[in-house]
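ok so I'm stuck.
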Amino acid sequence: MVLMQMATGEAVPDALVAERDELCDCGLIDANGLLAHVLMPLLDTLIDPAVVISLEAAGRRGELHHGVLVGQEYMVSHQGWPGEREAEYSYVEPKMLVWALADMVNLKQSGATVQTGAVIEARVGTVEAGVRAVEGIVLSEVEGAERDWIRRALAADGTLGEAQVVLLADLIAELRSSWRMTAAWRGHRNSRVGWREAVSPCGTAALWGTGTGNRPPSRSSRAR
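replied:
not stuck anymore, here's the structure
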């Protein structure tokens, strides 16, 4: 906030004087109130980005707000964490953009084996019982214990077979977070154009929501 205001010629409000002093102490603002030259590529990208990619993730540890700004010459990522008043900014190589976005939402495969193409028909109440079981699990639980906890919750009403309980418990156990990615850029005659995708990662399976915007619409929600 302080750097952006100084770069655009705006006065720093009194509420941010302490933050400005910290930037002075670490050498990013000199004694004459000028910004360090090393900040110029970063600030140029922040002030006038060509594409803005925002990532909103909700998980067991809180909400995350990350993103990437694509400028004319540079790409800059920013990451913020629950309870932290500062965000981390870093340059991203264009060829690493997809990997950087995946890393921000911890998108990776676990060791769990999930049968692809499987269809599970379950009552809403049964699934909700499994999800509620996750909420009661302590993060420091012994690895594997959470799946037993979830299986017991899913099997309680007796509507699912054993194989279905095992598969659905694996999916719920791997449902660590849900996240939404939004990309926006300038279109014809400076109009705003965008695209959005919502995803709920489940380890080796993924529940994909519907994409909207100028990208062709995605297929309906499914597990794969």
